[in-house]
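Possible regression after last week's pipeline update?

I re-ran a chain I had predicted before the update to compare outputs. Posting the input and the new output here so someone can diff against the archived version. Not blocking, just want to make sure nothing changed silently.
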Amino acid sequence: MKIAAVQMDVRIGEVDHNLNAMESRLRETVASGAGLSIFPECAVTGYCFRSFDEAREFAQPVPGPATGRMASLCRELSAYAVFGMLEADSGRLFNAAVLVGPDGLIGSYRKVHLPFLGVDMFSSFGDVEFKVHQAGDLRVGMNICYDSAFPEAARSLTLLGADLIALPTNWPPGAECVAGFVINARAMENAVYFAAANRVGEERGFRFIGRSRICAPNGETLVTSDDDRETILYAEIDPKLARNKLAVREPGRHAIDRLADRRPEMYGALVAPHSLPRPGRG
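New output (post-update):
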C-alpha cells in the first residue's frame, strides 16, 4: 500500500474550512495512489484553545458530523484516512484520532499522555485501551503527538499486531529531536512502520515545526520533511515486512527478534502506579 502523511496548516475554530482543506488533500493523495492518508492532530478544530468551554464548542461525538463527512469521501474514493479532532462525550473532552474508510468509522483513539499545553490542558486522559484496526490488508494503530515520547504506547500497539502506527501530531519548537530521532526509534524497536503527520503554521503564539516523517520497520527514514511548509509525504509500505519480526543478519551466528527476545517478567516497574505530580495538574 502507498500511504501519505499530510503536513498542513489548520485554522483554530474553523471546522468547515479545515474539513474542506482535508477533503481537497485527500483527493490529491488518492490521485497520487495513496490508499491511506494521515492528517495532523486536531486537524478538524485547531489546538491552542484557552479554556474547556472554548474548546468544547468545536468538539463532536464519534461517530459524528466530521467522521461522517470524511467517511463519505473515503467511500467515494475507496480510500482510508486517519485524522485528529476533539471528541465530546458525556460532558468530557478528548483529544482524539479516528480512522475512517469506505465503510464508515473503523476505529478511534483518545490521547493517553497529555502535556500541559493547548487543548490538552483541558482534555480528559484517554480511557480506552489501545486497539489495532483493519484498513484493507493493513493493520493500523493510532497514537497522538506526546504519546510518541512513551515507548510503552507503541509497544502496546505492536503486541496487538499493528503493521503501521499512525501519529497525528502538533509538534511545537522543542520537539525537533522527537521528529528527528524518536520516530525512527519507535519504528526500529517495534519493527513496524511509523508515520508522523505534523501540522505547520502559527496559532495563538505557538509555531508548529512540520518535519513529518515516515519510517520503515528497520528504523530507516523512508521520507521526511525538513521544514515547516505545507507538503505531502508518500511512501510505499509492505505489511509483510512489519509482520516478520525475526531479523537474521548472519545465518547461525546473528539473529534478533524484538518481540521474542523480550523479558516481560522483568518489567514490573513499568506498570507500577506512580504518585508524581503532573505539571499544571497537581
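Follow-up from reviewer: compared with the archived run. The two ends are 45 Å apart (CA to CA). Marking as no regression found.
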